[in-house]
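Hi F.,

I've been meaning to write this up properly since the lab meeting, where we talked about keeping a consistent format for the predictions we share between groups. The idea is simple: the sequence comes first, exactly as it goes in, then the structure tokens exactly as they come out, then a line or two of notes. No screenshots and no reformatting. I'm using this chain as the first example so we have something concrete to point to.
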Amino acid sequence: MVCTDFARGAALLDKHALIKVASAVLCSSLLLLATVGAASAAPGASPPLSAPRPTDVCHAASLNTAKVSTWVRLEHRDRTYSKIVSELTVEVAKTWPLAQDLLLGEGSNHYIAAMSCLTRRGQGQHRRWREHRAGTPSVTSLKNGGVKVVVRMHSWVDAYRVDINVGAWRIRAGVERWTLRLRPPAALMEARWDEIMVDTGGRGAESARPKPDLGRGSTALVWRPEALKAAPQEKPPNDKASVGKEGAADSGATKASGGTKTDPPPSVTVSFRPSWQRSWAAQNNRLVAVVLDRAGELLAMVSTTVLLLYAGVLYRRRPVLPNPVQKRTLRNLTVWAIALISLTALTLTDDVLVRYLERRGPGLRLQTLIISGNAFALVAAAVLFYVARPPQRLLLAAGVLALPPVAVAVAMAAQPDALILYETSTAAPITLGLASACLMALTVLGFTAAAWRLATDGGLLPPSRRFPGNERVFRLRIAGPIVLMWTTAVAVFFTVAQERNWQRAAWLSNRTGSSLGADRRDDFVSETVWAVGNGQDWILAFTWLLSAVAILAVLRTWRSPSAVSPFEDRADRLLLLVFFAHVVSTFSGYFVGSSAVALLWEPLLVLSLYWTVAPFTRRSVLAQPLERSGRPLSNFTDPASRARLLRKSRAYRETHAVLRRLDQGMFGDTPPERSALERKLKKLHNWSTTAGPDRLPSGMSVVDGALALGPGDNWWANGSRCALMSLIPSVPASLLMTWAWTVKGEAWQSTLLNRFGVPSLFTEFLFWMPTWVGAAFVMGTLWRQLPGRRGAAKALPVTAAFALLVTAEALVHQFTGEGSANLPLEVSAMLFVLTVTAIAMDFDTFRGERRYWQSRLGLLLSIYQMRYYSLQAAYLIAQVIAMIAIWEFFTEPDVVLKFSDLK
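Output, unedited:
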């Protein structure tokens, strides 16, 4: 009767066959439980013969003589999330039947069973996704035939109200308090627990149960169960009441010294208050934290979009009628600004929706995740193709790539039972993997096509060699295979990383069970589904590259031919500041695991370059007034004036070379007259203008004027030339920063754990190359307004703007307790790249004289008017400084691992 009513109720709620089947299964389970309960409650009932008595596979009785000690420590400083490190040391006697199995390889089933007994609470399929280990547990043979095992585990407290198991410990993070609990393995409950230590770090513990026996350091608490049990033996009893205690004490001593039973370890529980920084970071998975994080990022992107649209308004206010190329680039800038905020909203809304659905139910269904993830990814790809305006062939290729994810999403939405078929079929990983790979390829293809459109409309690409006078065409036969190879490489590395993570989480699982293969397949299917949104977010994180291309296209086509630098025009200045903020700057406003305050840093990002350059433009060489008219030299920056300065500069350097040889007594039979040489130098400062004859400023030479103009005829030519020359020094700088952020210290472990970790090595390099090249472009565009007579001095203002942002980030990290060890290295690399590029710019200014010199070094010495010994002295000083910097960098302790040793 109950089953009938239950089935009728289920039929009224939902007419799907899945609900009916579930109700029937549940009803059958209830009847079975009721039957078993009635049989066990009947008098004289005996257990069925088919239920064998459970066997102790761990032989816990033989582990009562094992010596056990453990410690756990939390590290809070110089990291976003607190790190928890645990170590468990077990010494087992040779009488334990599984002792020798520990000496086998890690892939042995006997090793897994023995190690599982010592580190887990029971047998079965163990899964610890948050637990990490730096290497294989240490297994050492003792002289008495026993085996000593040392297992060190670690994890990060990065989830709110989630139990994180690390070795024999479990931590749970709340809002105000975090709780640590000892969860010893079941087989070691009767072993000898010599020492238990908890180091909470930071402020120390707030409460501990039971009370600790002693303290160590400023924050560590220590329990010694065996030492306390042996203490009553020191005073013999004198009365009958104490005889029982003595017997108990003797019994405890006997247990500890090799008897059959000992007391279980104390149930250690420690609560403490973390700092607000670590507590805030650990709550980043809460819905309110996710909303604040995404809202801050969205508002920051809204401000960028507003600046780009306002720059378009300023350009349209110009009185000059725009040509077709200018109209296209300005339209592209407007379209991209709207697309940028649309892409950001799509990716952020997807994240918030997933967190919301997770909060509503006990778990997010893969079916819902597949439908929503594919839908958001397809819309984002459509936005990219809208910006690209591709030809029909490219649209057809995009349609073919979109077909598998659309088919999977439609199948999931149309048939509720489709997911069950996927989970039970071996084709599920292939089907879902193909759909995810197609979405990745579709996103990359749309990203590339959009960049190509923005670049070709702005004339940023060289013209076609095959068809002179025509623009280059986006060829699918070239781009298609490259995109497919990239997607294939990402898929291969994703599979390898997923398998590695599976082996890490399930390394102590029972390999003989039949469910292990199905669990691995289900885990791969789940991660493949999650990879749709994560992979697209990973690609769309580089939308700033498209913003850079759109800005450069407008700057190239709308620049004023008579302007000394882009700072002279409001629209050009605004776009250059936005370019510096989002291409050169690495400061994102991401602190304690959240971008909630990212909007507050937008003014600093945009104005940092202006604050470090604009106040000093009056001290530039071209800002100096002529002696008679008082007009600045910047009024004479046309190509004809530049050519005249170059000619005078050569005569000036040759005359000074003759004077130096005359001072050193190096002359022929008829030494030149010094007065004649000085009169020649004086005439070189004469400068004729439309208002009449004039003279260059007395504090500068014609060489200074030529170097101040740069190798190009306008600021765009100088910026382009400077960016091109920075490519070579940018490569070692990018490799260095890629190593520092993805390989050095704990970063390498994080790279390997990430499903897109290995491909991110390339994207990290791709991140740093535009940073240095973009900074060089900015330096080149401002070359004529930067103070300093030589290129090395002109590199300082742009480096100072970059250092201002890095300093602000370092100060905030100091306040939030996050690591900032690599930030000084960024400033050093920026100074190196810009200095080398600036020297190359000075050399390139006189590149027409290269044919007259035996080497580039000779021409460079002539330009700077340096002697060989002064160059050697500068070279030696630079070597000493470089060696000191490199020594300090490589010998200082790694801030990420500086707490690696406890004792």
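Notes:
The chain has a mean pLDDT of 82.
The CA atoms of residues 388 and 449 lie 5 Å apart.

If this format works for you, I'll send the rest the same way.

G.
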